[in-house]
Inverse folding.
């Protein structure tokens, strides 16, 4: 087996916020490599810099200094438009608050990234969006508005939207933060399946049990990585869901 | 990103806020509609004035007495009697470019028939007057030169006078004798109905009698006349005819070349131009008021687009996160405001034309809807959309994705 290709390489990434005269280091000299096919959970207390790190590797924010290579190519020197194209075609975002467009059907929400991708034709667009919705198990709710969907369903629409342009990486910022544990496991099941298909997943979470679904965990503290280790006993979401089902069954039978 | 996709994005976003979109358009709709309606009404009255002035005959020339100053105090226009009966004859004999000429004496008189009486205007003129004003006789006959010479007590009367004295417009009063300022006068003809002129004056409220009859029997002076009405042989030579009359009267009145004349010569086209100018000013005024509402409509669009940018900052953030370029966001917001002003402009045109037609139908006011006004207001509204849409769109496009996403 060849060594896994490095998808993301960051060196000495620093982000400083200035509030008046006070300088705040959200990130101080962070270096990390994420290889293709990884499933990384980034953990840490709030204010530890994990979200800032995520936003920077998601090309939504730019660092104060440092180096960032994606697939071996420099990212930080690219223009705004090139970054937008990168986000459109190579990255898929999943947010804690879902961030679906209100009063817009699930299908139209999923179609959105395709509308900004000039390589996808009109006919292809609906097909691809439908396919993405089916892959997250929402093939029957395509015309539903976000407010008609449960939190878990909304998050699945958001995942479908992230998937629709066949990205290399899925970036998830606390994807289970607003969901109950069973729904969270369902979302993790989707992530694990996507990861099995070869999509790299980078997920920020502060819930240790959710982090157990990832292949490796990175812990941030005060803008620095303090731990980077493989998950010893990785949980399988499908099995966990079965366990929950049997537990509730036992409860109802007793 | 293809423009078709952006159109779709803009359409969806407008469709999501139907009421807001409609209210925004309302400003443009009312603006465009009022510009079109105002211009149509203004242009209609303009053409109406021109047409009715022209119906008086464009080659008509009028001579009025000039203003006079006694001891440096001006007495105002036509305050002095300076035109004599012999001036009329001189014009008739000497001016080659003049076809018809008639002295005009006019006076308000009380007319009595039986138990009815009516106050009207009597004109003392020669037969030429009827030709100059293109007046025709519907019943009976006009007077003859002989009638004029003997100051015969005969007259022609207008329909309004017939109605008020005899109680019926269709009554044939030929042969009846009426008393004008106590003088018995025989009606020998009825003038064809002319209706109101542009200024609302009833042209049928009139009595026409031979000049000498009026002058000798009703006026105080037998030397001077109120005014002279003449018509040129052709419209093209009216200006020359005016010069001819001016020079002739200058000589006759013995006015030195350095002095001001004691009479005024006017042509119908001058009057027509004056009223045309007045009407034009009115039209411009109306158009200005209407343009202000169009401008306010444009500011309404800008207001809504700005609010919309702020309100949708998060949406812009989402769009940018999933790959919208600044350009795409700019185009989307521009398309939204252009669509608003475009559709608003179209509805405004329909509304404006409808309102104009309704005014024409129920208000009895002539309207002329010009293609120019439609095109102008439409282009103006589209330009307003572009202009007032640009700033908010620019603002939206310049947002940083992460700032937009974090916006609450």
């Amino acid at each position: 087996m060849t060594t896994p290709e490095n998808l993301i390489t960051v060196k000495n990434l620093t982000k400083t916020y200035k509030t008046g005269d006070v300088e705040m280091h959200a990130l101080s000299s962070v270096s990390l490599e994420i290889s293709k096919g990884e499933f990384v959970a980034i953990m840490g207390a709030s204010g530890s810099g994990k979200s800032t790190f995520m936003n920077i590797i998601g090309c939504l924010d730019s660092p104060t200094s440092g180096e960032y290579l994606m697939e071996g190519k420099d990212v930080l020197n690219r223009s705004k438009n090139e970054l937008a194209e990168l986000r459109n075609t190579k990255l898929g975002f999943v947010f804690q608050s879902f961030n679906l467009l209100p009063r817009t059907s699930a299908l139209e929400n999923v179609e959105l990234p395709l509308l900004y991708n000039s390589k996808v034709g009109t006919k292809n667009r609906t097909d691809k969006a439908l396919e993405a919705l089916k892959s997250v198990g929402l093939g029957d709710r395509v015309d539903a508005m976000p407010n008609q969907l449960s939190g878990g369903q909304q998050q699945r629409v958001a995942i479908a939207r992230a998937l629709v342009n066949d990205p290399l990486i899925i970036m998830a910022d606390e994807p289970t933060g607003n969901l109950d544990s069973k729904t969270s496991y369902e979302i993790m099941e989707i992530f694990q399946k996507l990861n099995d298909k070869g999509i790299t997943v980078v997920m920020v979470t502060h819930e240790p049990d959710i982090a157990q679904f990832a292949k490796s965990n990175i812990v941030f503290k005060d803008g620095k990585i303090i731990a980077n280790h493989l998950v010893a006993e990785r949980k399988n979401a499908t099995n966990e869901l079965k366990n929950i089902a049997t537990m509730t069954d036992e409860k109802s039978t007793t | 990103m293809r423009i078709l996709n952006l159109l779709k994005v803009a359409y969806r976003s407008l469709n999501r806020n139907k009421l807001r979109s409609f209210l925004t358009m309302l400003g443009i709709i009312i603006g465009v509609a009022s510009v079109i309606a105002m211009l149509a009404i203004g242009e209609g009255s303009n053409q109406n004035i021109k047409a009715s002035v022209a119906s008086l005959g464009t080659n008509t020339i009028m001579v009025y007495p000039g203003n006079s100053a006694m001891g440096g105090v001006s007495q105002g226009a036509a305050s002095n009697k300076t035109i004599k009966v012999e001036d009329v004859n001189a014009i008739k004999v000497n001016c080659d470019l003049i076809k018809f000429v008639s002295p005009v004496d006019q006076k308000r008189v009380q007319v009595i028939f039986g138990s009815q009486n009516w106050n009207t205007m009597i004109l003392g003129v020669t037969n030429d007057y009827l030709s100059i004003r293109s007046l025709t006789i519907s019943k009976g006959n006009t007077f003859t030169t002989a009638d004029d010479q003997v100051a015969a007590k005969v007259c022609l009367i207008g329909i309004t006078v017939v109605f008020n004295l005899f109680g019926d417009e269709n009554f044939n009063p030929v042969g009846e004798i009426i008393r004008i300022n106590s003088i018995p006068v025989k009606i020998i003809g009825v003038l064809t109905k002319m209706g109101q002129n542009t200024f609302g004056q009833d042209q049928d409220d009139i009595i026409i009698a031979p000049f000498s009859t009026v002058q000798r029997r009703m006026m105080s002076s037998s030397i001077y006349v109120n005014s002279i009405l003449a018509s040129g042989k052709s419209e093209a030579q009216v200006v020359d005819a005016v010069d001819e009359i001016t020079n002739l009267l200058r000589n006759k009145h013995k006015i030195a070349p350095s002095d001001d004349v004691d009479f005024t010569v006017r042509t119908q086209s001058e009057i027509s131009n004056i009223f045309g100018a007045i009407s034009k000013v009115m039209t411009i005024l109306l158009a200005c008021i209407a343009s202000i509402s169009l401008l306010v409509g444009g500011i309404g669009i800008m207001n809504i687009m700005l609010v919309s940018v702020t309100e949708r900052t998060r949406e812009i953030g989402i769009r940018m996160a999933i790959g919208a370029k600044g350009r795409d966001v700019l185009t989307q917001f521009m398309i939204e405001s252009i669509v608003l002003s475009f559709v608003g402009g179209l509805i405004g045109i329909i509304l404006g034309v409808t309102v104009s037609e309704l005014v024409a139908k129920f208000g009895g006011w002539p309207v002329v809807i010009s293609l120019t006004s439609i095109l102008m207001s439409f282009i103006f509204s589209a330009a307003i959309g572009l202009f007032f849409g640009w700033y908010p769109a620019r603002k939206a496009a310049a947002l940083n994705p992460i700032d937009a996403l974090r916006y609450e």
Observations:
- Strands of chain A lie at 6-19, 22-35, 39-44, 65-70, 73-74, 91-94, 169-173, 200-204, 216-221, 224-230.
- The CA atoms of residues 50 and 198 of chain A lie 24 Å apart.
